[in-house]
DNA sequence: CATGAATGAGTTTTCATTCAT
DNA sequence: AATGAATGAAAACTCATTCAT
């Protein structure tokens, strides 16, 4: 009658590995992040790792999926707002704030570096699409309300907002003088100016 | 018995390996680009590879340095021009055009993925600095002439122009609907609008 | 609080694991038969497996011992017969019939493949000896009665009868055109001819 | 202008590994024969092993193919003979003599133990077929000449001769009292008696 | 210079087995 | 008894790099 499966325990353990993986991947890149290093960081044995993830690659995918899910949750939290441009700038500003966690840009770089793995490319594109899908309806509402430029189709505008946040992330990672906190305001203003056209 | 090195022959061989390396790195990422694969692509034996580059990493650094050198050459070609904003937009537009060569974004991603290697980080930052240094004097001249916004220091503006081209490159690599040719015009217009403030 | 072991339940469980082990070993060989696979087949958890067998190897030994015991039981069932050659041919024919169970040759192959484990070698030789010991008295009685050749010592004749059944088993396992049912008759005739000398 | 590929050297090295593999596989079985052990025996580094064989399994297949090729060569050496039964008994006797090399039965057992690997099963059946194909024409000639029984089709007789040698091999491997040299004569006599019917 | 055979450190992954519940 | 999460030793295999020819 023993029931050993405690889903809570399982989920906690899983997150613990994901967290360690995120750190080590950000620090050392995909190949530098050996499973041994991740296990050491997570404080588990190598066997345990493969109890939770069949493959190192699967861990990466799980982290990416977590991010995609988070993006979708953000979308839900915006229900009820009525200022399209404000919403869009909040989203862009929020993503820029993520760059303040030094692990995010490192992880993004690490994962982009193995984009030639089809599964990674797919997950990365899903993440990308999620961001654009969150933006799209608000851009359309803004256009309908005359608050957003109409000379560029909504979908392209979405891509350009993602371009701005992507470039921002990369800049923070590359250039020590360019900090997420210090440049965020200019990002939001630039995005607004872009939206107005 | 003296075997004098024919520098012409040597340089040609070197470029041949660099070209193969660029392709294979773009396609398969840093670790996926085995020296064996690069040698196969270059049509040489593995021993020959190490005659020209002491290390796989050194090949990557050589490619990056080539890019940095190219950037400096671009700067020299602008001597004599007198329209700062025009020069800046030509530079940004030209970098965007690079993204049309599908190997460039792939190579950039691959290299960013191993940025945890100190030598690579250094070379990448040198490249980055080169771009900003090319922009900087023209931004300053533009500000002096009143054609470029003055509310943001010239160095930061340089960073932001690089941000735009970096984000552009990434976008082209990620999103099939976002093409270098199709979006270049909007990039230039957005850069101009940013410069005007 | 004493939990008394129900020996009936215990024995049933044990046989259930042995049965699963026999199947999986036959299908996948010794190393291919992971304890996980055997547990899955038996419908038990991995922990349970080790309640019944201290080691995967011990399971194999248990299966072999079961076979050896069966051979001894066969011997007992022959008490009272008076036709030595008939008995010998019944034994050989019966063993050949075992080959019709497709698990038998597979299991035998799997176990022979790990004969380098001393315990397995010992168990296999015990099984072998059991077969020869069952045969031996009947060969001797047949020789005494003048029905079995005397130019070869009884023990060697026993070895040769085992050779025939062993070769038969192997053939059935290797050659699809060679079926236990179809060739059994020729086996018995060949054994008889061998016994007559 | 360096030409490093010396096919002679390559073939010698390859055989050296095959020889070591044969020994270690015979001694320790398929899984017990780690690539490390084989390399140690062959006096090479692990990298060299995989220079010659892409996989441990491929080494096994190479050994089996060598055996199959040898069987075909034997067939060629019999051209011109005119005594079918003599030829058949020479073949059977020759195969029995192989059992005197203690590595042969051990290797056969080891390989049979991983017959669940499709490639191994195929190679093993090719080997088996080769033996039967060598026997078949001589059985047919013997039947035509009235020297071989006609109540059993030639192909089945071939299977039975292989059955005898297979059982013989197994016996030598299992039973210390059963030696290849001591029992070979009885094998040939038994085979002859079987052929006469 | 050019070659490719040889190397072995380092990686991911598997799996029998243990043990707390 | 029964369970399955946790473990870590061991295995196959990869790949940058060296070096004799």
Description of the molecule:
The longest helix of chain A has 27 residues, at 118-144. The first copy, chain A, is mainly α and 197 residues long. The first copy, chain A, has two domains: 1-53, Arc Repressor Mutant, subunit A (Orthogonal Bundle); 56-196, Tetracycline Repressor, domain 2 (Orthogonal Bundle), CATH 1.10.357. Chain A has helices spanning 7-32, 35-42, 46-52, 56-76, 84-98, 103-112, 118-144, 154-174, 180-196. Chain A is 77% helix and 0% strand. The model of chain A has no long low-confidence stretch (mean pLDDT 94). In chain A, helix 5 (84-98) runs parallel beside helix 8 (154-174) and helix 7 (118-144) crosses helix 8 (154-174). Chains in contact: A-B, C-D. The structure holds a DNA duplex (21 and 21 nucleotides).
Summarize this entry quickly.
The structure is a homotetramer of 197-residue chains. With 197 residues, chain A is mainly α. Chain A has nine helices and no strands.
Properties at a glance:
homotetramer, 197 residues, mainly alpha, Arc Repressor Mutant, subunit A, Tetracycline Repressor, domain 2, 77% helix, DNA-binding (chains A, B, C, D)
Oligomeric state of this protein = homotetramer
- The total tally of domains of chain A equals 2
- Uncertain stretches of 5 or more adjacent residues of chain A: none
CATH topology of the largest domain in chain A: Tetracycline Repressor, domain 2
The best one-word shape of chain A is: elongated
Fraction of residues of chain A in helices?
over 70%
Number of strands of chain A: 0
Quickly give the CATH architecture of the largest domain in chain A: Orthogonal Bundle
CATH superfamily of the largest domain in chain A: Tetracycline Repressor, domain 2
Number of helices of chain A: 9
Order of helices and strands of chain A: HHHHHHHHH
Q: Mind telling me the C-alpha Rg of chain A? A: 19 Å
For the record, the CATH class of the largest domain in chain A is Mainly Alpha
Major sheet description of chain A: none
- Give average pLDDT of chain A, whole number: 94
Q: Tell me the greatest interface.
A: A-B, 41 and 41 residues
- The fraction of residues assigned to DSSP E strands of chain A is under 5%
Distance between the termini of chain A: 67 Å
Assign the structural class of chain A, choosing from mainly alpha, mainly beta, alpha/beta, alpha+beta, or little secondary structure: mainly alpha
């Amino acid at each position: 009658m023993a029931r050993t499966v405690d889903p809570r325990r399982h989920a906690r353990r899983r997150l613990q590995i994901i967290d360690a993986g995120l750190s080590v991947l950000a620090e050392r890149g995909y190949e530098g992040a050996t499973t041994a290093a991740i296990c050491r960081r997570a404080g588990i044995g190598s066997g345990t790792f493969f109890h939770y993830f069949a493959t190192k690659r699967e861990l990466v995918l799980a982290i990416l999926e977590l991010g995609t899910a988070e993006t979708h949750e953000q979308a839900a939290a915006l229900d009820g707002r009525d200022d399209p441009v404000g919403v869009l700038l909040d989203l862009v500003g929020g993503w820029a704030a993520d760059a303040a966690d030094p692990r995010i840009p490192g992880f993004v770089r690490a994962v982009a570096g193995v984009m030639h793995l089809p599964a990674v490319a797919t997950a990365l594109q899903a993440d990308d699409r999620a961001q654009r899908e969150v933006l799209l309806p608000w851009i359309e509402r803004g256009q309908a309300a005359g608050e957003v430029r109409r000379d560029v189709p909504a979908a392209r505008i979405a891509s350009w907002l993602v371009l701005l946040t992507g470039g921002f992330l990369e800049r923070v990672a590359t250039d020590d003088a360019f900090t997420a906190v210090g440049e965020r305001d200019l990002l939001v203003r630039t995005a607004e100016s872009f939206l107005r056209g």
